Amino acid sequence: MYFEVGKTYHGFKLIEQKEVKELNSTARLFVHEKSGARLFSLQNDDDNKVFSISFRTPPENSTGVPHIMEHSVLCGSRKFPVKEPFVELAKGSLNTYLNAMTFSDKTMYPVASKNDKDFLNLMDVYLDAVFYPNIYKYPEILMQEGWHYELENRDDELTYKGVVYNEMKGAFSSPEGVLMRKVQESLFPDTTYRYESGGDPDVIPELTYEEFIDFHKKYYHPSNSYIYLYGNGNIDELLKFIDGEYLKNFDKTLVDSRIEVQKPFSQMREMAVEYPIAPSEREEDRTFLSLNFAVGRSTDPEIYLAFDILEHLLLETPAAPLKKALNEAEIGKDVFGSFDSSILQPVFTVVVKNSSEEKKDKFKEVVFDTLKKLVKEGIDKKLIEASINAKEFILREAEFQGYPKGLLYNIKCMDSWLHDEDPTLHLTYESTLNKIKKALITNYFEELIEKYILNNNHSSLLIVKPRKGLAEEKAEELRKKLADYKGSLSEEEIKNIIENTRKLRERQEAEDSPEDLEKIPLLSLKDINPKADVLPFEEREEGGIKVLFHPIFTNNIAYIDLYFDTRTVQQDMIPYITLLAGVLGKVSTERYELQDLSNEINIHTGGIRFSAEAYSKNESDEIYYPKFIVKSKALVDKLPKLLDLVGEIVGHTRFDDKRRIKEIVQEMRSRIEMTIFDHGHVVVQNRVASYFSPVGKYVEVLSGLSFYKFLSDLEKNFDARFEEIRDNLIKVSKAIFNKKHLIVSVTTDGEDYKAFKKSFKNLYDHLGNEELELNEYDLELEKLNEGLMTSAKVQYVAKAYSFLKLGYKYTGSLLVLKTILSLDYLWNKVRVQGGAYGGFARVDRSGNISFGSYRDPNLKETLSTYDNVYKYLLNFDASEREMTKYIIGTFSGIDYPLTPAMKGQRSTINYIRQLTQEDIQREREEVLNTKKEDIKGFAKLVKDAMEQGYICVLGNEDKIKLNKDLFNNLVTVFE
Questions:
Q1: Does 245 participate in catalysis according to the annotation?
Q2: Given 88, 145, 600, 673, which residue is catalytic?
């Protein structure tokens, strides 16, 4: 359809229209004349369509009202009065993305789907949720999602409960979380950015129901909204729907959601905050030091892109000059940085981790001296070229780890649009990039450093230091506060709290009526393709090496992945495989010094990455294939250089740089610590699998908590053990990088295979050719049942076992069981009633069935919930419509759209695991044909698995000690 600027379409006046050639899209900006809503569309041929509605929501305190509102509006609305429409959509739509996000100054509600009908359904539910939520009818929604006083009996202890309350307790448990949240407070003490939009657990209980409702009334109006459409949808029909169903019912109003600009400081501010560590942890060298600079405006496209490149140049690469200087000064054990352009005044941050407060002046001195030297002597032009190329490759490739492209463009456009600027400002990057490229012949970056860092007093030094007993002190203070409050209440008031607790529980346990459930739109099974997608795949051979070729359109990029068999490595050397992956590409080689190697990789390629994995044979956890993986990519005409660099790194790395390898060990250890805090649910899932599964045990030794302990030991005795470490890295490297048992995966256009074939010799000649023995590992399995103790204020609770060991077979219907348990039973019991941020089930082809929770205030109650899953299944009943919903929701995960690189990787892993197209098709048919009787029939499998009693919990030291009878071992994670 042809659109003309100035004309009105279904109440939307077209203000501006232009081509965005960088995204092959037509951009249109509309304003809805009656309601004042803004709408921006990016029309193109991408069938993974995205819709979102966002609101400018600047917080006025740290009660977390924007975040609690984001959760709450998705708990029932006018058209869709069920308790959790969001979950009903997750159970039964083909969405490729379904979520909501709270930022410091905005709240976004994005959805995505490839199916037109599904896309319209998702849009309808989300629009109804934001404009007509049930929060006005049911105060229990705030109690559940935000916070409430919990008291079941007169003599019980009064406590706080709530999903966001516990989510944020988890977020404030990690030192990185505390640091990240305090940076804005340190730089913007007079604006909305000083507040915690997610909610500070100490402040969340100050939020009243009246304030909550007022927030919605004030900000959730079309006049304060930003609607976004992306993809190949019919724009005319979508505008008609949005106007007719929603916007025509609203009149334009003036919403004051302005975001003030912070006046610059006359001098750098200093701020110190504390974070809790467990009584058994040490305080020395656990401090974070952070220098932060407010840099221009997010509405300046040049600053936006140039600082992204500058942050890469100074801190991201192994040879980045600022990172190098801080490492050499030994101020801390890890150095990282960030450039946050999601707020009006973007922030450039440099962080040193595992340091001490005494080193703060030295930290400042090294940062400023290094930057002054770079300005005076000039930055290496090769380094500038490398960093520009690295960012340009990312922009042009537009691969976002499988997230819909339209979602990432949505987030990017909000960085300018929210502040009343052109939404295409950061999407049309070509002219800005060309300006920045002049840095190769000018002092562009040197001048940026001088203006925005060296001569910028709008900056802060943030010190985040550990304190033993802080968590216990706060917990005691809270206990006393709540006990005093309870003591001050009359009998009538106590009865009210008990009654409110009962009413909330009653609402949570009540079933939605079939009539209400049927109001949630549902596709039919006819919308599911009965045939599984076939991933392009050809088996070839080059120089005696197996090559798996995936002919896919890749827009002139070649993805070359190498899968080396690591069974050539002896059992006692397994942890060195992951250490090797961390070292390669980050130390010098025979031909290149580190700085030059880093530059060559970034100038000529899209990146070379190293990792170690283990793939279990289809439907087995006893047989597995451990691999060392080299993932690399480049433009097709750069293939000779790419393969030459890969060959140089795997064949000729020098392991003699003691200082550099020590830095890498410290950095790897630090990054695993972050994972333990931020992804505790993954840590316990992997750990519990290692008690009973051979592949689980291997992965644990390779990269789990055992590997973390291995790194800690290396670091403690590094100087004395360096020669041994060096020799072991050489030994493991020689054992792995061999032509025998190597599989090469090539993903590129059919015609471009010739270019790979021609340049393959560049890699081939660097590899060993010995016949090496493949070891059979004998890793001891032991039922450790650990309580992993940290200072966290919440728990991550896992219970698992192998159903194959119990004589059960894998079937696709188990995936439907996973959907039902994750989005029904565990969602209701662990999250809604238990107050955890999440509860989920996992089932895989290697035979594991596991249950897990995330940021969970409970421990034994959650384990008891897992033990009762089988009872829920025995009584499971579902109508045909409900079963259809669960099956469709399961396909949302199975049919997730894959990028070309992901298709090549998926196909190769299937090949390694001996998973055939027939297996995949059979699984699909089993999912499609799942009946409620199949789900009921899994009760015995689940009961048998849970009765084996394999558990692992990561969480609060006091809570774990209180439940010590549940565990065989109590372990202090951070010593």
A1: no
A2: 145
